[in-house]
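--- STAGE predict ---
source: upstream dedup step, 1 unique chain passed
mode: sequence only
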Amino acid sequence: MHSRTKIRLIEPADAAAIAAHRARDVEEVRPWEPAQPPDLLTPEGQAKRIDGLLAAHRAGTVWPGVVLADDEVIGQVTVGGILPQPHLRRGSVGYWIGSVAQNQGHAGRAVGLALRVMTDELGLHRAEASTNLENLPSQRVLRRNAFSPYGVAHSSIFLDGSWRDGLLWERILGD
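--- STAGE serialize ---
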């Protein structure tokens, strides 16, 4: 049986599950994500982070979600940098799936669901994302969701000890 992917707004009670994924996968994500403070590998550190995300959600700048498979938290999908002004109306999508649930289509389905939130709930016109140039699995997720690459941000993020280029992606929503 194939598990069903869902997303929902993050909750304080998600802290322990997120911390468990992040602690287990710390070495696996090192090439793709900036170094994080050690407390983010603990439920207490994640609880503080979630409080900040929910405050930003109330302010209208972030939609922080969790990815669920069979009602268990397996990752996160976040719409950040939300610009709701009528002449901008865009946000940036970020996501990760814990290693125990990878290669099962959850990331692609979660991004698709986040695009619906961006259109239907947030009223956004444009979705953006960025990937490390070497992160081919993440690029496949974006291509499957009708994103197109549109440029390279040179030396844009410090990952695993060096500055890396990022591939920039876009999708016009409602198309």
